[in-house]
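Page 47, continued from p. 46.
Same chain as before, 261 aa.
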Amino acid sequence: AIWDVPIPDRLNGTLREYQRAGFRWMRMLGKMGLGGILADDMGLGKTVQTIAFVLSVKQDGDLKAPVLVVAPSSLTYNWAAEFRRFAPDLDVRLAVGGPAERGRIRKHAQAADVLITSYPILRQDQSAFAAMAFEAVIFDEAQSIKNHATKTAQAAFQLDSPRRFALTGTPVENSLDDVWSIFRVVAPDLLGSRDEFLRLTPTQVARCIRPFVLRRLKSDVLTELPDKIESIQSVGLTRPQKAVYLSYLSRIQGETLRDLN
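Result:
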């Protein structure tokens, strides 16, 4: 049976169905030992869908190892709070703090259902995390791994898990290279090597990744919202502000000329 995650009453029926569909998509890929990119627009409930996925794995008795959630440092405690809100029965632990504290948490992490850490800590403790096994890995704000050459992306690539999901509202920020880098982590064999990927056309890339990317926009879901109204209002500097600005500008210009010389 599909697990119905408790969804706040404030969400409308359309959004509920979209979230359930997203959860079922994650569960289907997870059952096959695959991963993907949940690329819903901001505010459509990527966190809730992910928690529903973890709950269903637990309910089915498939949680043989903890699920690792990697998020920006500013969001780790928010993830813990959301798990307490929607899934209070799960054993959720935070791998944060100093090196000694993180080591103690990781030592007993295999008994937990969920382990939450940040991208900087994943990078610092790369070898320790690479030695652990995870039932699934969730990369929140996955644009953090969009550059395959960074240490963060390398640390993410080395994690041991059969299924990995990236959560991001902006799967492509700069170029298609972002897609290759993220898929190198969540589905390493899908797009081949970087040289093979560069030989693909955008149409071929889109065809390859279509089953593994779920993207819904606010305009598709929250149909009752009015159109966004944008207005531009220019505000000039006051005389004291302009004096400060010009002084900094003059100093920077002088430093730049000296460097160029």
